[in-house]
Design goal:
It contains 10 helices and 6 strands. By secondary structure, it is α+β, with helices and mostly antiparallel strands. Strands 2-3-5-6 form a 4-stranded antiparallel β-sheet. Strands 1-4 form a two-stranded parallel sheet. Helix 3 runs antiparallel to helix 4, helix 4 runs antiparallel to helix 5 and helix 4 runs antiparallel to helix 10. It starts with a helix and ends in a 7-residue tail after the last helix.
Amino acid sequence: MKRYVFALALASVCVGLALADPLPLTVDQAVELSLKNNLSLKADEQGLLAKKRSNDFVWNAFLPKVGVAGAMSKLNQVPLFPPGTPDTWIASTQLTAQLNLSLALFDGIRHIALDYQSSIIAHDAAQRKLARDTKKAFYSLLLMKESVATFEAQLETARKRYEKEKRSFEGGSGSEFTMLSAQVAFENMKPTLDGMKVGLATAELGFKLLLGIERSQDIALLGAVELKTVEVDEPRLITAALANNGDLNVLRKAVEIQRNLRNAKANLAYLPVLGFSYTADPTFLKDPLKDPLFKDIKNDWRQQSGLFTVSLSMSLDGLLPFSDTGVQLANMDNAVSQLQTSLRAASEGTEAQIEGLVMQIQKSRFAVERLSLNVDLASRAYQMAERGYNSGAYDLLQVEDADNKLRESKLGVLQEKFAYLSSLFDLEYETNQILTVK
């Protein structure tokens, strides 16, 4: 027992040590994990498996419906066969087979295929959407980490500046006002950094949930928020989006499914149904409680009745336009028109979205170029302010102003890079393709 407890404790320690080691992740590895562990996708896959099974065996619609039944009956009167008493029991069986053929049967088969195809499209779109969201979350975390690191460096600079002013004041060469101003600036930055760290920790928890890994598992993101310059031919992208967008294709399948359901209803209501049926009822001609049942099957089990029927039937009430069938068909026509209108609206929305994403990508690319120049200028200005401050030519406020501008410039570049990548991932999702890098 002690060894068992010790083994459990050792295993717990090992697990804790394993979770303590950061898990290195590239963006591709993060996407792979999210696709592998997402519970919603797993549930969709089970539903897709069931629909695939139905589609694979759709031909079973042509199998006749077969049934068999057996019964023991006690007669109230003495039977004519065989010689017996009023207490004689009769064993009987019944076999039925029926098959109805109509055009609606083929519509039903097509409905199963369309439903399966629609589910495949929707599942693929869900996978690509999850991959897009994972990439966005990955680079958003990188942006937050770089922002925190930048702010920490600036906080350290503010601390050093405060320590310098404190030494100057204590040595008699500086003023108390300058020292206090440096201390206030330093202390004011601490709550901001704390808030940034809380936001980063919260985002990491959400990212781990997205990937399906333990919340206690540390992660180390391998990568940087950098641009991937791609070809953004707007007309070609719009054409690709209208043809390949998963959401639009799901709507197209919905139109097909609704139209097929309408045709099935009409074919069932207005076209004849060809039916085949067969019944047989072999009955045991002796006493089943006394005589052997299967000694002489040919003579002891005879069919009393039964028949094979070929029928042609058609419903007439659906011919009236104001009948229940007529009203249902009219409503189904409206449903098809409604879906087609939704498809047109979604297509127009997709075109507008592609245009907006292309403009955002171009804007972010140019903004990064301009802001990168601003970073260089702000960095030079800050270095000049630091040298001037150390030599006594500049005061503390000038240094802090240069520092703030440098920080804003760096964060501005990072934010525009993330906006570029985010728009790029949206564009790839909408067009269902990976855009080539120039």
